[in-house]
Each structure stands twice: as structure tokens, then as C-alpha cells.
Amino acid sequence: MTQPRGSAAKSAALSAALSGAVDLSALKARAEAAQRQPAPPAGPAGGDGPPRPAPGGAVIDVTEATFQAEVVERSLHQLVVVDLWAEWCGPCKQLSPVLERMAAESGGAWVVAKVDVDANPRIAQLFGAQSIPTIVAIAGGQPVDAFSGALPEPEIRKWINSLLDALRDKLPGIRDAEAAGGPVEEPEDPRFTEAEEAFERGDFAAAQAAYERILDVEPANELAKNALAQVKFTARAENADPEARAKADADPSDLAAQLDAADLEIAANEVEAGFKRLIDTVRRTAGEDRNKVREHLVALFDLFDPADDRVMKARRDLASALF
Questions:
Q1: What is the 3-state secondary structure of the chain?
Q2: Catalytic residue list
């Protein structure tokens, strides 16, 4: 995750500060002076609804001159997610591709409006953005929610889905997109396909390398993180000494046997036994040996849901063994 834990509170404060408190029409006069925009297409004949936005893709580059038409007026019909970014911003390069891909998948329910803050500082000032990336959701001509920092993709999806649910009855674009074809099936990511195919043929080194390449570009990609942990574990378990459990029980000081035995127990779904073995080994060891066992155990925790009762108990037991 690219932002500190405290950023959640910052995002909540940002959202509260923006909601209903920013006059986006402040840029209108500047925009009209800089560039005369064509009138947006009218709604259906005889309709009283807001004008439909001009056809376009899921991602729009926005400037001060186009902000009124592409963000404010467009938000009367569909959800607009403003992405405040800059070329030098590392977290922006992690977050923007995720937003753009998700917007493309939405079938027109929402769009990303990208704003280069270096080229358009007044827009960043308008939102009071103190850091980037800052993401602001616009609906009905006003900000409705916001966050800052490069959140993991699952959290972004949850955020977007909650907005779509809340705004479905207010923004025709959401209903139109869903009526046209329902939720758009997520396209297959060739990077994951490469990794999964390598895993299926037993080439764990290639699968690990493929997932690591994804994480080099998207360090917050939870799917890749979880898959990488599974690949590493499977490779270890496949190569573990099949006699490791007997050896470990016969000689508690045999560190390699203890690690292999724990992997075999986890692979056999004897989760509590595997965790207990390593926690007991932590209690008996010190220095580098203890650290090696601890790291191995923590890597095993990553294979499970953090809320798993077995993991939570093992974490408490590990803390007790260490301190």
C-alpha cells in the first residue's frame, strides 16, 4: 500500500471537507474566456432530464478550459471520478492505470477525468488537494466523496461500487450502462494468464517471476501478492523432504526439518499443527535461527484470511513466544 495507515483518516476528512462545499462553477468564466466549448448534446426530445455527455472513452484528459463541460456538466448524467496526478508522482503511476481499467469495464457508468496538477494548478487549489494522488467523485455538479493515496484495487472497487449504488437513481448514465449490457465482464489480464499457465504446468519459478513483474508495476495489487505467496508456498511444499515430519519430531534442533514439516502440515490442511510446530521452534531458538523461523511462519500467515481464527491465535502465540 502506497499510503500510511493514517491516510484513511485524512481521506475521510478530505471527503467531508469537499462534500457540498466546493463551487465547481468557479472555473466556468475562466474556461469560457480561454476556449469556447460547443454546447453539449441535448437530451431526448421532450425529456426533462440532464443533457447527455458527448460520446467519448472511459478516460478524459481535462484542463481548466474543459473542466466545466467535461466534469461539471458531464456529472449531471454519469459519475465522474477526477484523478489529480502529476508526471513525477510515483503513487499516481500505480493508481491511475487501475482507475482507467475499471472505468473501461463499467460500460459508461462512470469515467475518469485526469487532471495534471502541474499544468492545471487552479483545479488542484479548487479542491484543496494537499497531496497527490487525490481522487474526487463528482455527481450532479458537486463533489460527493474523495480519498488520497494509492489504495489497493479491492478497496477502490468497494468505493466505486458504493458510489454507483448510492447514485443509480440520480444519474441516468449508470442505469443506461447497466441496461445496455449489465456489468461488463472484466477482461482477462494477460499478465495473470501467463503466471497461471506457468503455475499449472509446474513451472513455479516462471510463475513467481510473472507475479513479481506485476508487483514491480503495481505494488499494491492484492491479487498478485496473494498469488505470489501461494506460488512460493507450493514450490516449497513440493520440494520438501517427505520424511521431514519424522525427522523434525526425532530431532527438534533440526531447523530445516522443522520448516519442511510445517509446510507439509499446512499442505495437508493440518494448519494448527504447522503453526504450533513453528511457534514451539521460535521458543527454542535465538538470533538468526529464530528470525528465520519467524519469517517463515509470517509467510504462512499470508496464505490465509487475516481474520481466520487459526491465524489470529497463532499471531498471539507468536508474540508471546517472542516477548
A1: CCCCCCHHHHHHHHHHHHCCCCCHHHHHHHHHHHCCCCCCCCCCCCCCCCCCCCCCCCEEECCCCCHHHHHHHHHHCCEEEEEEECCCCHHHHHHHHHHHHHHHHCCCCEEEEEEECCCCHHHHHHHCCCCCCEEEEEECCEEEEEEECCCCHHHHHHHHHHHHHHHCCCCHHHHHHHHHHCCCCCCCCHHHHHHHHHHHCCCHHHHHHHHHHHHHHCCCCHHHHHHHHHHHHHHHHHHCCCCHHHHHHHCCCCHHHHHHHHHHHHHCCCHHHHHHHHHHHHHHCCHHHHHHHHHHHHHHHCCCCCCCHHHHHHHHHHHHHHC
A2: 89, 92
